[in-house]
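note to self: the first set is below, dont mix up w the second
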Amino acid sequence: MNVLRQPITAVVIVFWFFFWVLNGLDKFFARKDNGLVRWWGNHRVEKFTMYFDQLALDPALVKATLVFAGLVEFAAAAAFVWAGLRLVQGKPGVAYRTDLAITASIAVFLGFTIFDVIVGDRAELLEHSTYIGVLLVSFLAVSAESFFQHLKNIDSQSTLNRHYPPETQ
C-alpha cells in the first residue's frame, strides 16, 4: 500500500486536512446548535465585531469576512486532498503537492498574522505564528521522508543490478 511507504507524509496530509476543514466549519457553525451537534467553536462573531469597531468598519461585514475566511480554509484543505489522492494512488509528485499545500497554508496564516497585527490581538498573533512554525516542521518532515525514500529507491536499484546483471545477447 502506497500510504505505508510514506507514513510521515500521510500523517501530515491527514492532520492538516482535518485542521483546515474543522477550522473552516468553525467559521460557519461557531456557537450554533444544529440539532445533531452543538458546535462550540470560537467566539469569532464577537471578536470580529470588536475588531471591526476598532477599525471603524461596518459590522455588517463580519459575516462576509468569516465566510471568506472559511472558504479560504476549505481551499487549503482541498490542496491537501490533492496531495493525498496522489499518495493513495501511488502517483509521483506527492511531496511536491504536499509542499504546495503547506505553502498555501503558510500564506493563509501569514494573512491571519497581518490581520492580528493590525487589530492588535497578540494572543491570536502568537497562535498563528506558532502554526507557521509547525507548518515549517511539517515541510521538513515531508522533505526528509522524500529524500530518504529516494535514497532507498536508489539503493534498491543498485542492489538489484548487483545481483542480477543485465543479460548479454
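second set (the one i keep forgetting abt)
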Amino acid sequence: MSKRLLLLCLALGVILLQGCATGKSAPAPSDMAADQEFEEAYEEENGAYPDSLEGLNRGVFSFNDGFITYVFSPIDTVYTGFFPPDVRTGFGNFYRNLGYPVRLINALLQFKFDKMGKETASFALNTVFGVGGLFNITRDMPSLQSSPEDFSQTLAVYGLGHGTYLVLPIIGPTTLRDAVGSFADSLVHPLSFVTPDSARYALIGHDRGNTASANLPAYKTIKEESFDHYTSMKDVYFQYRMGLEQE
C-alpha cells in the first residue's frame, strides 16, 4: 500500500463517528423551517439523497457497526479511563488548531475573506496564548467563530454535486465528492509532513480516534432511537454536510 493511500485511509478514518455521530441541539422553529426549505430545494434539484449502492452499503454498514460495538467501544473504555475529559478536550483543541491551513486555503478558494480573517486571528491567539492550541481561548469570542471549510465544500461552491452515498469499511459514510475532498485536504494538512512515517501515522490515528471517542456517545444514542439505523445515519450525514454548505 502506498503512503498516500494509507494517508487517505487514515484521514478519512472514523468518519462514521466523526460525521454521522455529530449531533446538534434542537433548533428553533425558524431554523427548522429554513433547514426544511433547503432540503426540499436540494431534493428538487438533485433528487433524494443519492444511494445507488444501498445494498452493498448496508452490508458494509453492518460490518462497521459491529466493529464499533465489539472493537472500538472496548478500546474507548480504556482510553477514556486513562485520559480525563479535560485532557481529551485539549487533544481535540490542539488538532483542530493544527488544521488551520486546510480551513484557510479552502476559505480562500471560496473567496470567503471574512472567514480567512477569523481563522487567522483565532489560530494566532490560540497558538500564542493557548499553549500551542491545547486551550481554545477564542471559544467564547463570537466575533472569531466560523464554520470549518474543507475541499468538498469548495467543490460544491463550484457546482460539483455530492455524488452517490458510500459506506466504506472502517472508514464509514462519505460521498464521492467528500472522499475526493478529504484526500485533497490531507495533502496540505500539517500532519502529512511529519516525519518519520510512524510518527505521522500515530498522530493522525490519535487525532481521528480522539474525535471518534468524543462522538461515540452521540452515535450510540442515535442508534438506540432509530427505527432504521442505516437510514438515520445517512440522513444525519447528509443534513450535517448540507448544513456546512449553507454557512
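remember for set 2: The CA atoms of residues 7 and 87 lie 26 Å apart.
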